[in-house]
Model the fold of this input.
Amino acid sequence: MATPRSHQQLLNLLQFVRVVEAGSFAEAARRAGTSTSAMSKAIARFEQMRGVKLLHRTTHAISLTHDGERLLESARDLLRQAEQLDVMLDEATGGEAGRVRLAAPGAFLRACIAPKLPAILKANPALELELKVDDFGLDLGTEGIDIAIRFGSLDRHPGVTAKRLATFPWVLVATRRYVEVMGEPRSVRDLKAHHQIGFRDPATGQLMPWQFQDPSDGALIRMLPRKRVVVEDMSVAWAMVSRGLGIAWLPAWCGLKDLEGGRIVELLRPWRVPNTPIHAVQVSRKQMPTRIRSLLRVLSDSASTWDYHG
Done:
């Protein structure tokens, strides 16, 4: 069923308010989790359908037209009412019922989220949880994602609200049997003699370099693994390691049970780089439904089990 014309115009008018408050199309798009082009087209459609011009656009700035100034305060009232209605609807259902879309890299979903699903669903029996594989850095607004798991710095994800959940180490790993046969490396230089399993980041298409910190002087060392075996799924890389096919540099959460049970061992432990943070990110919003807060709380409570202290 198509969105009625009047409804679409109201949605476009709300985007107008967001652009004015953000000061630019690009910043408004970042805050809304959408593209600059989509934001610009929304306002252009409103202007075309209503025969008004809301903004003067130049290469470096925007400014309100006379009609834009007249409409701005009423449009702001509309946005406030829409947010209040969203809160009222959330409270009317107790806030616990409804759908939440959680996105994370596929390997992380399998290793860390799937085992926690019983606890997540028990904590909120009315929750409708959708899990989305996010190996490519999805647009949260366009995909309707409520919470996304992101690793490392958030510099590439402006305009989001983030909650730090935990940290984890990247570890160089192999089976005990592999080490017995091939020997244990004592420095990065020794890795040339080993079978290396590389990981290609599907989001960038780039082979991920292995990173180490020299314990003698703290210098960061980056090296690209040989391309004989390269995969685009960390779970597959860990499975290959567990079968004794070689060594790999991977997040410890890929196989915590293997590490803690001693079946797979960490190599070059003194050369480990600092831990990587894990964040739960959302498109910025003033009000957060109770069901989303509940899921964030369960994720935060579970996050300590994602780290490896070996």
